[in-house]
Design brief:
The chain is α/β, with parallel strands linked by helices. Helices cover 42% and strands 14% of the residues.
């Protein structure tokens, strides 16, 4: 999975084209004349984003842009309500107004969004601190609803723009010329090599998506996998694929929550699931690790979107895209999950630039399929997803978000290898 913030206007020339449909400068029922208070408020917002070289343009075409160079693009505000909303709470209103056609971006979407994202303060605002304090409770029932909201949009939707394996997490571009399909297979294999999988071992996977990793592990490494998921659409696809590929006896896809994992296993893997756990349930995940991973020879890997400092997920993202999500810091993972589970961290890698590149591929594919998406889900949905993908790419490119892979073992167990040399000795996927 993926989640990230989209740009805010509340943080501290010529350009062509508009990504998506052109903005209607006078949306139905609003618009009208621009008055002095409108210009004053727009000027205040413009001063905040001048360093990004992005022009703020009102619905009459006016702007007070005074940035240091020719603007790279423009944020076009369609009406007074949107202007006030941006000033009051841009974390929410930028996304809401964009998806509803009340705000547009003139010029290439991703560079404009990235420039705005780079202005994000390194310190959380009072509103963000309050949101952290009031974080919701991801019960089993609530978690299932949250997953259904995002992942059960229909497999056909994701097939339009993901790779052929349907991997909805960060790819690994071991070579700069790799295609998205190649980079996603490389990521699957990187995870397997980091875990040093051996034939006959047992693996538990918490949150399996459409089953690509579980099937890759069984096919190429000879392990047995129990994969947990609560998305009906993903499970149906994964089970059908396992049957078609003759792997049903080696991979079991289970419709259940990670909290209900039972038994003991050699390996624990979680790729893109941790973001759905929620800070209040980190101790629950620690209990799962402590009881299910063999104390001698066991090892596990967490692959997750994270941050450098504690901060909630963008308000618009949690409302429209990923309800109940939280992206933790490394410190929160080690002190609230791995430490209480009596696990030792043995390797950490940050793949954030790989995720920025992955998102660029997704956005390009989504743009090609946009008309199909709009026909099925509507214009607002299509605009929301193009902004979500562009904002996510910008967040990883600018370092607002990180992508961590953390390898760990039970405290009394030795690391699976003394060095990283074996990870890179044979970069090609073996048969």
């Amino acid at each position: 999975m993926n989640m990230a913030m989209q740009p805010t206007l509340g943080a501290a020339g010529e350009f062509g084209g508009t990504v998506g449909p052109a903005l209607d400068r006078s949306p139905s029922g609003v618009g009208g004349s621009v008055h002095l208070p409108d210009r004053w408020l727009a000027a205040l917002l413009q001063r905040r984003i001048d360093p990004a070289a992005v022009r703020l343009e009102l619905w009459d075409g006016s702007s007070t842009y005074g940035g240091p160079r020719q603007p790279i693009g423009a944020v076009v505000v369609g009406d007074r309500r949107t202007l006030v909303g941006l000033a009051a709470n841009s974390d929410l209103w930028f996304g809401e107004a964009y998806m509803n056609g009340r705000l547009g971006v003139r010029g290439p979407l991703e560079p404009v969004v990235e420039a705005l994202s780079a202005l994000t303060s390194p310190y959380p605002s009072w509103r963000e601190r309050l949101k952290l304090a009031l974080a919701g409770d991801n019960s089993e029932h609530k978690s299932r609803d949250n997953v259904h909201h995002h992942y059960d949009l229909g497999n056909a939707f994701y097939q339009l723009w993901l790779d052929r394996e349907l991997v909805y997490t960060c790819a690994y571009f071991a070579e700069p010329t790799m295609t998205l399909d190649e980079a996603q297979v490389a990521k699957l294999d990187l995870v397997c090599r980091k875990l040093r999988l051996r034939p006959g071992e047992s693996v538990i996977e918490a949150g399996c998506g459409w089953g690509a990793l579980a099937l890759h592990m069984a096919r190429h490494y000879g392990v047995r996998v129990r994969a947990f998921n609560v998305s009906r659409e993903q499970l149906e696809y994964a089970r059908d694929r396992a049957a078609r590929e003759g792997l049903t006896g080696r991979v079991e896809f289970i419709d259940d929550d990670y909290r209900n994992v039972s038994g003991q296993f050699d390996v624990f893997a979680s790729i893109g699931m941790l973001e759905h756990v929620g800070l209040r349930h980190f101790e629950t995940l620690a209990d799962v690790l402590r009881r299910c991973l063999r104390r001698q020879g066991g090892r596990g890997l967490l692959h997750f979107i994270g941050r450098d400092i504690p901060r909630p997920v963008n308000t618009w993202i949690t409302r429209r895209i990923f309800p109940g999500s939280y992206t933790p810091t490394l410190a929160e993972v080690t002190t609230r999950i791995l430490g209480p589970a009596a696990m030792s961290t043995v390797d950490v890698e940050n793949l954030r630039l790989h995720y920025a590149q992955t998102l660029a591929h997704w956005a390009q594919r989504f743009a090609v399929a946009r008309d199909q998406v709009r026909a099925t889900y509507g214009e607002s949905f299509a605009r929301a997803w193009e902004l979500y993908l562009a904002g996510s790419q910008a967040s990883f490119a600018t370092g607002c978000m990180q992508l961590f892979q953390v390898l760990f073992v039970p405290r009394e167990s030795p690391p699976p290898s003394m060095t990283r040399a074996d990870l890179f000795a044979s970069p090609e996927l073996h048969a």
